[in-house]
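Expect chain and fold; see below:
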Amino acid sequence: MKNTLIEFWRKRAKWRLGFILMLVGAFIFIYTFQAPRTLGQFHQNLPLILRMAAGGIFLWGFHQVLIVLFPFLQRFHIKRIGRNRVSLPRDGLVYLLMMTVLFVGSVLSRENMLMLVFAMMTGPFVLNGWITYSMLKNIKLKRLIPQRVMMGETFTAEISLENNKKLIAAYLMEVNDYFTNQDEKLDASVVFRRVGPGQQLSAHYYVKLMRRGIYQFGPLHVSTRYPLGLVKRGAVFSEYNEIIVHPQIGRLNSHWADDFFSIAEMAQQSRSRRGVFDDEFNHIREYRTGDSQRAIHWRSSARQGELMVQEYHQNRNYDLIIGLDLWLPSSSSQDQADRVEWAISFVGTLCREHLKYSRDTKLTLISRGRSLELLEVGIGSMGLDYLLDFLATLQPGKTPVDREFIKLISEASSSRSRTVLVTTRKESDPQKHNHLHTMFEERGEMNGQWRTIEAEPALLSRWLVLETD
């Protein structure tokens, strides 16, 4: 309840007008009881008219406050009014207020001239409403978006409007699109200046989604105030789409091969003349920030006049096993949430590099978040898409490391496998029994080479290079 009130106060700019309308309505309603005789001198029914108007103003303001306090009520609002929606912009409200004053004045004073002016003002108001209603008939809206994007990637959403009327064109059609996930609600809008009879036009807007997961697009709202701007009429189209936002994927620099593979493979080569884990030379390229100085090819650097490095395949023909421990406490900070995202980006990058360069190998991902999941991925682009879809929807949990998680990783390991354990827990905490590395050492059933990595952004940034705009 406390968090709801804090969020309500942050949105005070949205409910302030409704609160003021409630106060004005309550003041007018109470005043009609305080001075009924004074108001009755103008007209005997004036107190009753003012009470009805005050009640309407109070209810309208109360409705606006409730929408801000409980946003889920908007769904019932749309269902209640159906597909067509009618609202008055600020100009229309002022115009309607003037009409109301003229009508009340003509009734109280019995002045025919005021009633004539009121009737003349009613014509444009009704005409504007009829034109907007006619333009919204027989139109169709469609949305076209990609099925998958990467977090932070800019993509284009296409909105097409088809006018199936034979005679009437659609002018100044504003289309609002809404897309939401578990944490945020966003919107975008496009405007069609004119869509002729039987014509179909398309408009675009650009989107950059900064949270991984599944976004729901829809519904589409179309509205117009043409030609006078006094009445705004709209329609709701049940056009829904879904898009999967993959975690941000980067590349592994040469430090990863030096830190994780070199020592182990030097020991492997000392026992055997030739093993299956030898590096494979790929090409020579220019030096990039973060590359290891050991990889500099001095002869090519002297020839080219700039630093050149030798690039090797960072993944070899071995089975890769990744144990992902996504731990996030109930009262988490932003730093702990960043650990989760860095861990997922690092695992996604590591899996992509392995699937890209390895042959006839197996990739096994075992994650422990809200639930225990085991995923085996084959070599190829389809396997990578399936893996990234899985990582996009992966949610952290607050349960301690259980024996089942350790058992699955131990059973998957073999003499020709390499195991990477990534945890979002702080391995420097005093409680050693909660450490992932300690629990695997105590069990002592791991085959092959393995290593535990703490998902600290400062540590992962040594190996992981994320592309930023």
